């Protein structure tokens, strides 16, 4: 049980990068970008091919992220310069990326099991450092059963994800970032102030898909392979992470919102892992579980808010009745 939950948290932190990319396009720019399903594979495929070709895993990962950035920029160009509907532009790019990814990879699956990846390069130093024993002793001191796994991937991904989060928080508070947020809120208003909204949308969608591709590159190295179909449903998973995070942790500021997205990605993975342990559910039900989670995250806050509003109205009505009764008695 503990190993399953730890694996869920571990994968949740990796997919949190993808969720941050989805947050940037859907919440900041209000752009329904379906390129995500394709750019996720682009990141994994480009990184996989580069690693198999002998490139440094760090450079290969950055190259995968850059390829996703280019794909996102093309989607932005299709929408802004080609005047294609945002949803349709994303769908067209997603379809095109399937063939592009297959062409880049040369085959449906690129294996990295026997290659030097980002995680295997750090492993030798990690084992010598003794961090696993240190973390396991902390867990044992808390009364939890001894954990036999490694903390390498979890620690590296927490550090990397928090670095990306801090960068995104900082970027969205810069002049360009504020203009990007304003473009998402009111494009006509920011255009009236002589801002280049087309350029901002292209950059925003590019960065969004760059983060998605970065997540794909890391997921590919984590799993040991890149597959042309591994991006199917990524947009739904990203949206689920964003919605669940906002429902549980709030979205009052950018710092809280991005942290909520990371928390949402982890909670989503934990809930899916727990659900799949139920006897009558299997791995084929994962998409159904995701749909139910998204529906619950969307509907539950509104139901709670409606219930609070109803109580507030009843309380106000009761106060008015008491006041009228008091005026009658005093008269």
UniProtKB/TrEMBL annotation:
Subcellular location: Cell membrane
Name of the protein in question: ABC transport system permease protein
Keyword Transmembrane applies: yes
Principal location class: membrane
Entry keyword set: Cell membrane, Membrane, Transmembrane, Transmembrane helix
CDD domains registered for this protein in UniProt: TM_PBP1_branched-chain-AA_like (cd06574)
Membrane-traversing stretches: 12-29, 59-78, 84-104, 150-172, 193-218, 230-249, 256-276, 288-304
Keyword hit for Cell membrane: yes
Highest taxon above the source species: Bacteria
Membrane topology according to the record: Multi-pass membrane protein
